[in-house]
Every structure is written in structure tokens, then in C-alpha cells.
Amino acid sequence: MVKTVTVDSSVIISSLLPSEKRNKEANEIWSKVLSGAYAAVMPFSVLV
User: Fold this and answer.
1) Predicted structure pTM score
2) Any idea what the Cα angle at residue 10 is, between residues 6 and 14, rounded to 5°?
3) Dihedral of the CA atoms 28, 33, 39, 45 (nearest 10)?
4) How far is the CA of 36 from the CAs of 18, 39, 48, in angstroms?
5) Which end of the chain is flanked by fewer CB atoms within 10 Å, N or C?
6) How crowded is the C-beta side of 3, counted as CA atoms within 13 Å?
7) For 1-48, what is the HEC assignment?
8) What pLDDT, on a 0 to 100 scale, did the predictor assign at position 47?
9) Do residues 2 and 39 lie in contact, with contact meaning Cβ atoms separated by under 8 Å?
């Protein structure tokens, strides 16, 4: 079963900036979303 996670803009920004404190964790979340292990639910504000 695929786990559903809510992803807000802080996860996206942290994954893009290596200097961010939680960069590694954000990249792990994105990797799981892209591999299909997680389904991402994003607020509309993330997409704007």
C-alpha cells in the first residue's frame, strides 16, 4: 500500500538548498514520492 504524505513548500525548498538544515530529510521524502512509495498531497499554494 502506498503511503500518502502532505508536502508543503518548506519540503520543496529544503530539498533544493543543500545548506538547509533538513535537506537530507526533504530529499528522502522526494525520492520516495518520485519512486512511487509515497503519494504526495500538496496544498494549492505549493503549486503557485
Assistant:
1) 0.78
2) 115
3) 90
4) 24, 7, 23
5) N
6) 11
7) CCEEEECCHHHHHHHHCCCCCCHHHHHHHHHHHHHCCEEEECCHHHHC
8) 65
9) yes
Instruction: Find residue 40's DSSP bridge partners.
Output: 5
Distance of CA 13 to the CA centre of its chain: 9
Q: Which residue has cell 512509495?
A: 37
Q: What are phi and psi of 2, to 5 degrees?
A: -80, 130
Which pLDDT tens digit goes with each residue over 1-48? Answer: 899 999 988 888 999 999 999 999 999 999 999 999 999 998 877 666
What is the distance between the alpha carbons of residues 25 and 34, in angstroms, rounded to a whole number? Answer: 14
